[in-house]
Amino acid sequence: MTNPMMLQEIRQVPSVLATQLEQNTSRVIALAKAISERQPRFAMTIARGTSDHAANYLQYALESQLGLVTASAAPSVITAYNAKLKLEGALVIAISQSGQSPDVVNSLTAARAQGALTVAIVNAANTPLEAVAEFTLPMWAGEEKAVAATKSFATSLTSMLSVIAILNNDSSLQNAIVQLPKNTQQALETENIAHDRAERYRYVEAMVTLGRGLHYPLARETALKLKETSVVSAEAFSTAEFAHGPIILIESGFPVIAFQARDATATGSLERYTDLLSRGAELILIGADEPSLAATIRLTTPATGHDLTDPIPAILAAYLFAGHLSLARGLNPDSPRTLSKVTKTL
Length: 346
Known about the structure:
With 346 residues, this protein is of the alpha/beta class. The protein has helices spanning 5-11, 13-23, 25-38, 49-66, 75-79, 102-113, 128-132, 151-158, 161-168, 171-187, 191-197, 216-230, 239-242, 266-278, 311-328; strands at 42-46, 70-72, 90-96, 117-122, 135-138, 206-211, 233-238, 255-260, 282-287, 297-300.
């Protein structure tokens, strides 16, 4: 296998981002208007798996840009424990590629019944999740044939960005969103490096993925993809938290996927990565380049013009590395063992 569907779908991201931007204009304006008028007191996200990593990114985006305190829901509180959450005046956003998982659908249904402003970010059309939401923002990723979601994750990240740009009257963010198809296309140029260098880690058993702020959800998502497609025991940490115990894992030759931002977290992460190199770690550096770091692999992605959009090209580089690592290990990244495309939990 030389060209699995996972890699083909990663390469489709620039075009699906352009489609999303074009197709969601009226929906974005309507949602921004509703948020502006109803002034939610706080926000809550509902998601599982990869979608929960997108929700984690959304939490950073809503809090850092709008000052809107955002929590991650525990769906079992509603679906298993039958709790009635006090969500009147909240903005509740559910994210699901399939739009079918009963716990996500039932949680959003309950939130709307409690008086929340509800939003579904979903890829598949005419889904149960879309049916129960007041507003829907389609991902427009198209059909995903690989089990491991990639292009739908990217469009999950971008779904709310234009809404935030309108609410903040942020022209620089809107310009950066418009440029994302071009910048993600540039990020795909890291594939040759990922292909050539992934072989080095063919027999690795464990890895750590690190990021901070808006890039921490990318670390979580990359760790999941390494588990799913390469059967690597990968753990994700915030660079700020890693020194509080987990750093003991690092010894000579231990591989660390390190996301480097260009935002306010950059200096702190640089210091942490420098420390890890002194302990013998091998850095796979993704995102902004840092010439002072002796990284074993550099997957440098372009600056996009805004803190919120910089993570999008970076996750594509990470996905490319994960896909080529799976191939180097003789695995099929399209069909991870024991996994299916749609997971339904109650």
